[in-house]
Amino acid sequence: MQTQPLMVALLLPVLAFAQPKSKKLPALDPDKQAILTDLDRQFSKYAAISRQIWDFAEVGFHENKSSALLQDELKKAGFDVKTEVAGMPTAFVATFGSGKPVIGILAEFDALPGLATDAKPEFTPISGQKYGHGCGHNLFGTASLAAAIELKEWLKKEGRSGTVRLYGCPAEENGEGKVYMVREGLFNDVDVALHWHPTSVNSADPYSTLALIAARVRFKGIAAHAAAAPERGRSALDGVEAMNYMVNLMREHIPSDARVHYVITKGGEAPNVVPAFAEVYYYARHKDREILRSIWKRIENAAEGAAKGTGTQVDIEIEGGVFNMLPNVTLSESVYQNLKTVGGIHYTPDEADFAQKMANSLQSKVAISDAEQVSAFDPSSAMAADNSSTDVGDVSWAVPTAGFGTATWVPGTSPHSWQSTAASGMSIGQKGMLVAAKTMALTALDLYKTPALIEKARKEWVDRRGANFNYESFIGNRKPPVD
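That's the Amidohydrolase sequence above. Prediction below.
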């Protein structure tokens, strides 16, 4: 069930029922009030765009229709759009304005393998569809689009110096597209980068994430008959198993908050044939990128030792790697104040019924009314790390960066689930998307109007990063795996 771009307008009446009521905000900055009013007015348009990307459900590096739809909207709004940046066909950078400050807004739009379910409160597979928006990136990209266009309108009306730049970032889920953009220097002149993510709560805490290295380790041996001539063989699978054994012994002697996990992707064809080829796929994570580098070196040593011990050869291909997120309390507090101004998500009776049915499927004890709340700001969370990884981490080491989450999913919902996919395709997700668009636009407005806020954020960023930091990505000179 895919709708062509020209059909967006036909979706508007269907989604108009979900239009949220404007929040009454006394004594609010007139520019901010104008942005909030305009985004409310255009809610149905952006809801339809997000639903269309949800229908496309394109996996990383193949988001051709989704990327084209966002680019078309930006071009119509007067942005200059550069396509296929950093060697990725679906990556783009859209720019409006000139001069400082340059505010970057990140946009994602890739789906996940599996998880193709209809937007209903029970699992309803969609026949013939391979992918689903289980992380809500259809909402992510659309909210960023809406915020960028609002800022463009304000810059144009004011006739002032300043640049808004939207980064169309592909393959966050399976390809770390932003790492290639950072490596290409596309963020070098940006003063602040803003991002958000769909989730089940409204929060702007300045947490970090885990740095990650992902690699395939391939062993080559010599095939032989396992019964008639085993002495002639050298088992590649033995190499994999010897490596895994050594890595598992190593777990006792690495920091307890490190994460190492693997799957054997190729172990041989038949028991009576000594495997000439075997492969194991590794992930390693830690909240400190340099500690992760040292752990990874030991994993590589285990692979080389396993090859020597089993008489095989080994090749290690780094497939991906991201830095931990560098938190910025200054920026996050500004985001929080604007998120609190915008407020949480209020369900209609139909949405509340949907949400309650969804909550029952989750066996969650979290109240669906939690979607209305904005979590209290906790600056101490900058010392903690969420047990996930994202390519936004590399962006945060290239430019002061802040992000937040909104309740696009029913409270208690896990990402990468059929429940998150379903909510991302209907009005609950779309309302959370609108909160995100408003929050990003208001925060960027503060940054344009208050140069001292940017300077304070940059000072904190330099203090955390180190003045002599030199960026060297985990992926080296690897080309984007667009195939």
